[in-house]
Structures are given as C-alpha cells and as structure tokens.
Design a protein that fits this description.
Distance between the termini: 44 Å
Order of helices and strands: EHEHEEEHHHHHHHHHHHHHHHHHHH
Strand content: under 5%
Protein name: Nuclease HARBI1
Biased composition (Low complexity): 20-32
Low-confidence stretches: 1-57, 116-153, 186-336, 456-468
Largest sheet: 3 strands, antiparallel
Biased composition (Basic residues): 33-54
Organism: Alligator mississippiensis
Strand order of the largest sheet: 3-4-5
Radius of gyration: 30 Å
Number of helices: 21
Biased composition (Basic and acidic residues): 99-120
DNA sequence: AACCGTGTCTTACCCTGTAA
DNA sequence: TTACAGGGTAAGACACGGTT
C-alpha cells in the first residue's frame, strides 16, 4: 500500500520559519494545515483541517546532533542536507524524516558515497596536472585584490557593443590579464563537447549571446529569459546523454578545477569588496551557479579535497544546465497574453442573460460586489505594469466559483498568470467571507424561528410516469 | 489491488524599477 | 532598505485514469 502525505512539504525559508501554508480563510500565523479529500468522493474539493501541535524551539544544530554530522550540517539558522545540498525545515522532525526517506535523497546519498569511494588523491592530483596542462600560465595571484576597482570600470566600458565574449576578453587581456584569462578559459570549458571529439581549445562557444548571459554586467545587458522546462525525466535523459560522451569525465575534472580556481579568486576579492561583486558579474555569476550553498566565501581557502569533490559534483550539475541552455530555445520571460475577451467582449457587449449564464449573476450584482470589495483589492499603479483591476479580480474568482473550469483555462481567458489567478480567487473568497458574508447571511434568534409558524415544505411536483 | 504516468493545484521564490 | 505588483518556474502533493 502506498503511503500518502497530505499538504505540501514545509520549507525552511518560508517566512516565519515554519512551516505549513495557510489554508483558505486563515490569516493568522499558526493556522491549521489543510488536508484534501478525494474529489470524486466529494464532488468538489473539500478541505478538512487538522490541528497540529506547536513546534518546539529546536535549532538546526540540535538536528545535526540528532541525525548525525555526516547527514546534515547547520549554517546559521538553516539546516542543510549534505547529500542533497538543500535546506531542510529543521523545526519539524517529520520533515527531516520525510526528506531522508525521499527517493531523491537516497539517490544523492548513494551518489555521494560512490564519489567518496572513487575520489582518491591520485585522481585529484591528475586534475591539477590536467588543468595546468591546459593553461599553464594561469596561477593564482593577488593581482585581482589590488586592481579590482579598475577592472570594474574597464569591464563596464568595454561591454557597450559586445558580440563575441571571447574576443572581448582577449581584447582586454592586456588591461586585466588574470581576469580575462579566467573568463576565456571558463567560456571554453563550459562549451559542450562536440560529438566528433574536437580538442578543447579549438572550439568556440556555440552561442556568443548565451555566453553573454554569464558575462554581462549585472542589470545592463541581461535579458529576462524564460527558464527552460526541466522535468525530472528530461533532466535524467540529458544527464545520461552527457555522461555517455567519451570526453566528458575528463572535461568535467578540468572544468571543476577551473571553477575551484575561480571560487578562490572571487573569495579573496569578496572579502575586501563584497559589494562590488554583483556589479562585475563575470566571475560572480559563473561561480554562483556552481557554488555549494554552504560554502561561505571566507572558507574557500581551506579543505581543498572537500572543495574538489563539491566542485566536481557542482560542475556536473552546471554541465547539464549549460548543455540544456545551449539546446533549448530561449524566449522572453513574459508570455504573450490577451485580455480582449474580458475587456472588449464581456465588459462592453455582454447582456444580462450572458452574464447569468456564465457568471451565474447579473451584471448589476457583479458590479455591486466589485464596489464593495474595491477598497480591499485595488492595487497601486507602478511603472512596471498596471495592476489587475478590481473587476477582473472579482471576475476571475466568480468564474472559478461558478464553473468547473480549471484555473489554467481561466488564467488564459483573462490573460493573467495561473499563479495570479489563484491568488485572486483566494483573495476574493476571503474578502467575500470577511466583508460581505454578514451583509447577506443573518442568523435569526432561534427562539423566534421556533415560535413562528413554518410554512409547509414545497416539493417539486413529480413528473408523470416517473414512478415516484 | 497495485503501480505508473499525467494533470491539477498550491506555495515559495526570483526578477524588475520606483517610491517611500 | 523595504514594499509594491505580477509574471514566471520549480517542487511537492494529491487526484485520477489506464495498465498489469
């Protein structure tokens, strides 16, 4: 029998530290978690609430001591799973147990054990040798510490009309030698291996514009991108394809070594002028994508072997990501959508009959609700975009309640995102309950109800031949 | 009945420029 | 520095239908 857990897993990063999402209509902290029952059994979704006990004030360190240092580690107020390298809610013990029982965790744990068995000092030595063979002139120095502010200006100026990032970095190599070398190597190493097995350095990045993503200064040349779809199956397929390539392991080690160098370099710089890291963007973005979340900037100089393992694992992830970025079509982040149906057709042309058929209420009733709720659901206008009008918010919610339509179709119908539609529905429902319910539902005095003579119940007349 | 794949829904989080 | 607003995705959980 398959066991099922109800409600989403709690997340450690959630505001308030803990723990469960608030159910509909519950605004206060510590509100009751939701449970969902079968849609088939209940007709519509019914939510049953179960009271949860108050959580004890347990710290991440307590959990580390409880479950073992080899499995978890604490970073401030956050508990991290060492194998999965992700934050785990430390407040609820059940969350930790569930995480440890998850297939993903077991898989990561298994992979981690295998990597630990195979990562002997000889191999690490081979990585060093490999790296130095590739670029012998690259050695760590303190140059960046001194020249960092100068680099910032040069990079900012130079990025005005960039087409090929490698050409750009090679062109300014005289001015910022080490940084340019690192950037070029990083670009070359992160380029996916060609099927015919060409050497590492003869290859040029397949897409200069894609490289710009990693090299463009923050907020200047970056374009909002739609993140690629990464289904589990898709990722696994890509990973297996990538791992199957003959030169992959070797490239991975080289890449990992380069990443490690970059991390050390950035760490040294970050210690002195951390607020400038983001402005430069080159090394920061590159290392950020592969950096272990628990690896603080100050500790990068210690634990070479451990860093090496992490870097190799991270490089594998980054390799898959990079490969994916290279192979998918990227497009603007925002989808094209239309509110034509609502604004031009419904609001302008619909008559009461159509309103009744679709929204189960007349236009006048709808507008009355909008008028009542407007003070609560009117948002400020910003430069970014106009907020959703109160009419549209109410319409989304009413249509959701009045029809069995999915949230997805409704969001398409109104030209908004699905998450936005969901928020609008919950918000309007909460307001209907809090603001308007008392205006329409009045509880009479029970005694008066009993005293009043009740009219006889009215049943529909049986149809002839129905047998009832 | 158990398993598997897919669909749906919810929540968290990120991104962005401006104003307070 | 923070709040605002809405778009997007990932992840998790449940529902449900098809297959064995």
């Amino acid at each position: 029998m398959r066991t099922r857990r109800f409600g989403p897993r709690s997340r450690a990063e959630r505001p308030g530290g803990c723990c469960r999402p608030l159910p509909l209509g519950a605004g206060a902290p510590g509100a009751l978690p939701r449970r969902r029952r079968s849609r088939r059994a209940s007709g519509r979704r019914v939510q049953v609430y179960k009271k949860m006990p108050k959580s004890a004030k347990v710290t991440p360190k307590d959990r580390v001591a409880q479950f073992g240092k080899d499995k978890f580690h604490a970073d401030g107020t956050v508990l991290f799973c060492t194998a999965c390298r992700k934050a785990v809610d430390h407040v609820r013990k059940q969350s930790i147990v569930e995480h440890m029982e998850s297939a993903k965790h077991k898989q990561n744990e298994k992979r981690r054990r295998q990597d630990a068995e195979t990562a002997d000092p000889k191999q690490i030595g081979a990585v060093y040798t490999d790296y130095e063979t590739v670029k012998p002139e690259l050695k760590l120095s303190n140059e960046c510490n001194v020249e960092w502010p100068v680099y910032l200006g040069i990079v900012k100026d130079g990025f005005a009309d960039i087409e090929d990032p490698i050409q750009f970095w090679m062109a300014i190599e005289d001015r910022i030698p080490n940084l340019a070398k690192y950037a070029v190597v990083l670009l070359q190493l992160t380029t996916p291996p060609s099927p015919d097995g060409n050497s590492l350095h003869s290859q040029q990045p397949e897409s200069p514009s894609a490289c710009c993503l990693y090299l463009a200064p923050h907020g200047k040349h970056t374009m909002p991108l739609r993140r690629p779809m990464t289904g589990r199956k898709k990722q696994e397929t890509q990973r297996s394809r990538l791992l199957a390539r003959p030169d992959y392991q070797r490239r991975l080690r080289i890449y990992a070594r380069a990443q490690l160098h970059l991390m050390h370099q950035v760490s040294a710089i970050a210690l002195s002028i951390s607020n400038m890291i983001q402005q430069l963007g080159i090394l920061y973005l590159a290392t950020q994508r592969t950096q272990c979340p628990t690896l603080s900037l100050g500790s990068a100089s210690s634990g070479q072997v451990a860093d090496e393992e992490k870097a190799i694992l991270d490089a594998a992830e980054a390799g898959v990501l990079w490969h994916h970025l290279q192979t998918v079509d990227r497009q603007l982040w925002a989808h094209t959508s239309s509110t034509d149906w609502w604004e031009r057709i419904v609001l302008s042309t619909w008559e009461d009959k159509q309103w009744l058929e679709t929204f189960r209420m007349s236009r006048a009733t709808f507008m009355h609700i909008v008028t009542k709720l407007s003070p609560y659901i009117t948002r400020q206008n910003t430069v970014m975009r106009r907020p959703l009008s109160p009419e549209k918010r109410v319409a989304i919610a009413v249509l959701r309640l009045a029809t069995p339509t999915s949230l997805r179709l409704i969001s398409n119908q109104f030209g908004v995102g699905m998450a936005t539609a969901g928020v609008a529905v919950r918000e309007v429902c909460r307001l209907l309950h809090n603001v308007m319910a008392n205006s329409f539902i009045c509880l009479e005095n029970p005694q008066e109800c009993l005293d009043q003579p009740q009219p006889p119940p009215r049943y529909p007349k049986p149809r002839p031949g129905s047998g009832h």
